[in-house]
Design goal:
By secondary structure, this protein is mostly beta strands. About 5% of the residues lie in helices and about 55% in strands. Strands 1-9-8-5-6 form a five-stranded antiparallel sheet, with no helix packed on it. It has a four-stranded antiparallel sheet with strand order 2-3-4-7, with no helix packed on it. It is globular and about 45 Å long. The two termini are about 20 Å apart. The mean pLDDT is about 85.
């Protein structure tokens, strides 16, 4: 449960984003899971055949690739943290890169 927020839920989660010469990435958290959008930095072409490893606090694992061209990583750490440094290791064919960014959770949900 989050301190200071009734019901233990934060209202707004700022996406994590990062880029390198090879790739750009945006991670959006909702309901304890991160959806990762990955594309080539130079062309904005989606990268759908990569292996994406995620490390965020106590969470470490691989993003699973659903059929929609994104990657998904589920872990309870996304429900309990106020801020997380997130590292992504991306391997796509012969290319690999390390991307990093910060994920922040801020504000309490509005009451209806």
């Amino acid at each position: 449960m989050r301190r200071g927020c009734p019901g233990g839920r934060w209202h707004r989660i700022t996406p994590v984003s990062s880029h390198s010469d090879l790739f750009e990435l945006v991670g959006v958290v909702d309901a304890g899971a991160m959806t990762i959008y990955l594309d080539r930095h130079a062309t904005n072409e989606p990268v759908t055949d990569a292996k994406v490893e995620v490390e965020a606090g106590a969470a470490k694992g691989h993003g699973h690739a659903p059929a929609d061209g994104t990657y998904r990583f589920e872990h309870p750490v996304f429900k309990d943290a106020a801020a997380l440094a997130v590292n992504f290791t991306v391997v796509a064919g012969a290319e690999s890169d390390l991307l990093a960014g910060d994920l922040t959770f801020d504000g309490c949900p509005r009451r209806a």
